[in-house]
Amino acid sequence: DSISTSHNIHIDADGYLYVVGAEEHDIWIYELTDHPENPILVGTWNGEYFHDIEVYNNKLYGAAIETGEFYIIDVTDKSNPTTIKIHHTGAVGDISTHDCAVTYDEKYLLTADETMGGYIKIWDIQNYDNINLVGDYMTNPNHSVHNVYIRPGTNLAVMSYYADGTRVLDISNPYHPVEVGFFDTSNIEGLFVGNWGTYAYLESGHIISSDRQNGLYIFSSPLVETSSLEWYPCDSNAYLDQSYNQNDINVLQDIIDANNLDINDPTELGTQSWQNGRLIDLNLYSGYITENSRV
Questions:
Q1: How far apart are CA 179 and CA 181, in angstroms?
Q2: CA pseudo-torsion sign 250, 256, 260, 265
Q3: Is pLDDT of 14 > 70?
Q4: HEC states along 202-221?
Q5: What is the tens place of the pLDDT at every residue in 120-140?
Q6: Strands in 69-119 per DSSP E
Q7: Cα(145)–Cα(37) distance, rounded to whole angstroms?
Q8: Can you spell out the DSSP letters for 1-47?
Q9: How far apart, in Å, are the Cα atoms of 55 and each of 15, 132, 155?
C-alpha cells in the first residue's frame, strides 16, 4: 500500500507516523523508530475523514470536519485501532470541527472550528459518558480560528487564528480561559488570510508562525529562558482594543511609514490622548480618511 496525497501527518512520542486525509484509509499508521527513511505500515483505520489529529498516550484525538464531531480512538494496538468515543461539538451549518488538542493530564480537549465565526471550545472529557463544554474563546465573529496546540509543560494553548494572527490562551482554569499574548501577523481583512500555521514545541521557547501573505515569523516569548517578556491578560476585545505604552508610539509610526506606499496619501499619527501613561485614544488620518482608534 502507498499514499499519493494526504492532508496532514502526526508523529507521536513513540516514533509512529499517523497519516490522515489520504485515499483508501482514513488513518494510516507507520512505524519509524530508527528507520524513518523506510516507514513500515503497521495499521489502518476506517470510519470517517479526519482533517487533523493529535496522538497522546496511545489515544488518537481526531477532528471530523465534515460532521462536526471529534473522535477518541485507542491506538495501543497499532494493527487494530479501536474507537472509544464519538462526540458532536454542536457544530451547525458551515461550522465544523477542524482541529483538536488534548491537555497533558487528558482531562480537557480543545477543538477549533474553521469557518466564519469559528472559535475554540474547551471540553471536559474526564468521563467519556458525560462530556461537557466548559469554556470557549473567540476573537472576532467575522474571523476564524485555524489550529490549536498545547505547549508542553504549561497550561498554554497556542493558536493560529488566521486574520487575528498568533494567539496564546491561558487555560489554567478551563472554565475561564484568558488570552495572555498575541501578535497579529497581518493587517489584511478576510476570513482565511493571515496566520494559518503555528509551531509551539521548540525547546528554545520560540514560537514559529506562517502567514499566508507575509511569510514566516519567529517570535520570542516568555517561554524563552533569556526573555524579559511576561504573559499578561489581554483585553477581552483585543481584536479591537490594543494598548501601547508611550515608547511604543514611535514603533507604531515606523510601521505606518513602512506601509505607506502612496507618498501622495501618507497616513499620519493624529491627536492622542493619554491616561496614567497609557495611550487611550488615537486618530489616524490621511488625505482621504480620518479613523479613530480607541485603545
A1: 6
A2: negative
A3: yes
A4: CCCCCEEEEECCCEEEEECC
A5: 999 999 999 999 999 999 999
A6: 69-74, 82-88, 97-102, 108-113
A7: 34
A8: ---S--SEEEE-TTSEEEEES-SS-SEEEEE-TT-TTS-EEEEEE-S
A9: 11, 21, 18
- Nearest Cα to Cα of residue 100 among 134, 68, 75: 68
The C-alpha atoms of residue 224 and residue 292 are separated, in whole angstroms, by: 36
What pLDDT does residue 186 have? Answer: 84
- CA-CA-CA-CA dihedral for 181, 187, 189, 190, to nearest 10: -70
C-alpha to C-alpha distance for 214 and 187, rounded to whole angstroms: 10
- Structural element, H or E, at residue 254: helix 248-258
What's the pTM?
0.78
SS3 assignment, position 109: strand
- pLDDT value for 94: 61
Task: Give the whole-angstrom CA distance, residue 206 versus residue 225.
Answer: 10
